[in-house]
Amino acid sequence: AQEKGMDELWGEQTINKNITKNTDWYTEAKFAMFIHWGLYSKMAGEWDGQHYFGINEWIMKRAKINTKDYKETAKTFNPSQFDADAIAQLAVDAGMKYLVITAKHHDGFAMFDSKVSDFTITKATPYKKDVVKALQKACKKKGLKFGIYYSQTQDWFEKNGYGNNWEFNPDEADFQKYLTEKALPQIKELLTGYGEIGCIFFDTPGPIREEQVVQLKEMVEKYQPNCLINSRIGQGLGDFTTLGDNEIPSMPLDGLWETCDTHNNTWAYSNLDFNWKTQDEIIHRLIDVVSKGGNYLFNIGPKADGSVPDVSAMILRETGHWISKYKEAIYGTQPLYLGGQTQFAATQKGNKMYLFVKEWPENYTLNLPKFENKTLKAYFMDSQKEVNVSTNELSTVLTLPLMKHDAIASVIVVEFEGT
Ligand code: FHN
């Protein structure tokens, strides 16, 4: 359904590695909530009696909905069940440390009170309230860093924005005009009226020119010098890499980076998709990302009424329950690469290695590389029950009990002499 391959839309993935901004909170965070929520949530995979399986936030483009009809849907967008505190609390319960909300997605609809457009939740809907503001306040209250998603290139509502070729003629589009009159002023509004913005998630840089990327970057840094910018700003000018959607690298990566992942197969809510990742899958993917040095930005798609789908929320709470037992092994850790196997993965902090055993070895023995520092002891993190650790010429050998210790992933702490 999409005309361009995502690789072409994502553009340059490199980043500026000489960051002078404060990055500590970002490297410590590891797990975060992404929220795709907008008018498209109302369509929920259906338009004009047709079903659109797959990513629902693209329904305007996929169903070639004209701007007039699309705007009409705003008249009945009334998310009476939206509760910013409850969503922020869900993020906290899930063990997440920051939250990124779609302030404006490709459909051009602002979920905040923008003065430079009428196509906003405050002016075009009966709800009239600024949900970005509500979430920002809720995050502040709950100690979460706050981030915004802003689609800087694609704006299907504007004839000068990029991407709407079913209603407008792309050859007549003046992209710089759109940038100057809508994108930059809206980004300024977000940077100046919503407290501290920890990070900004730009998307699909596509054909944007370098001087335009510089304009965006300068705008962000003028108002929020410490705001971290993702690589999808384009032209290698971001501070952290956002990998491809749902992509986990096979090896650790340099610099700051993030995997963004969907809970099912769409970012925005769809009535047609119940393919939820289980708590085990989410935890295994989190471990995979963190052991390679990245952050895991996990998406939820609230419904049009503002509520989070029950199953999605329940799975996230269970995920958080597991994480709460093993916090020390996750937050603020460094990656530790033990080869490309899927059976286990590790992180490290100080003189400790945290080993996540996802699949129990058939012979109850784990052969790890031989480490330079002497091992002092090994034990299961939750019960403190000792695990036998020995070294031979080639390996560090852990002898495990017969039974799995934790059904999702058993966490073993190995302590070393020195760091
Ligand atoms: O086109 C968007 C998509 O709808 C979604 O927002 C994702 C999230 O990373 N970004 C784009 C595709 O990569």
TrEMBL record:
Key words, A-Z: Glycosidase, Hydrolase, Signal
GO molecular function, one term: alpha-L-fucosidase activity
Coiled coil: none
EC number, UniProt record: 3.2.1.51
Catalytic EC class: hydrolase
Gene Ontology biological-process entries: fucose metabolic process; glycoside catabolic process
Superkingdom of the organism of origin: Bacteria
Chain ranges of the Glycoside hydrolase family 29 N-terminal domain: 12-328
Cellular component GO terms, alphabetical: lysosome
Function per UniProt: Alpha-L-fucosidase is responsible for hydrolyzing the alpha-1,6-linked fucose joined to the reducing-end N-acetylglucosamine of the carbohydrate moieties of glycoproteins.
Membership in a protein family: Belongs to the glycosyl hydrolase 29 family.
Name assigned to this protein: alpha-L-fucosidase
Residue span relative to the full protein: 19 to 437 of 607
